[in-house]
Amino acid sequence: MYIHKFGNPEHPKVILLAPMMISGENLYHLMKPYLKGDYCIIALDQGGHGKAGQYLSVDDEYRQLKDYLVEKGYFDIKLVYGASLGVAIGWRLFNDQRFKIEYAWFDGVALKKNAWLLENVTRLLFRQKK
């Protein structure tokens, strides 16, 4: 995972979790015109995308995000936006009681308990960074 940061860290936090085939930086540039106001925007390159390394699992991706947020002391989050693949991480963040999420917007939600096939296909797709 690679974490892009835009804006002043003192401003409300917005976390952008991109879908497959889009980097966090690409998603930031797509969403920027719609984010009115001053925010600290955290946009992730998930494994196999952008500047990130290989994809291991959604749990590993979430652990990396959580560790970053805890290290920075970012527990109050204004908005978590997740699209497609990003929803799996966003859902974990939304359900983590350590964080106060004011708004969550999940687009193209694919939430399925024990989605073994989906998890393994995703893992195989992004095992190696090109």
From TrEMBL:
Record-linked Gene3D superfamilies: alpha/beta hydrolase
Top-rank lineage group of the source organism: Bacteria
Protein name: Alpha/beta hydrolase
